[in-house]
Amino acid sequence: MSDTRQRIYAAVRRIPAGRVATYGQIADVAGLPRQARQVGYALHRCPKTLPWHRVINAQGRIALPPDSTSALTQRRRLEDEGIVFLNGRVDLTRYRWQTDA
Is residue 101 part of a domain? Predict the structure, then answer.
């Protein structure tokens, strides 16, 4: 596994249950500023144990096709952690993971 993917996965593992992070935020935490797409590519091939479902886009939406199995799984997992969707969006002010990085 590449060093880049390892750094991304380590950042995603830090997101606590009941919180979300954006792709750009994970890129920053991983030391990869302005590489949000790289985070998306890495999550496409992530280990099943990684809490990938806690990563959403900068608008507070799930980035996957809306009716796909993966999008429905992601939404269900987030709701199981207490995250509320309003009109298909997560309130980032309320649920965004606060980090120093």
Answer: no
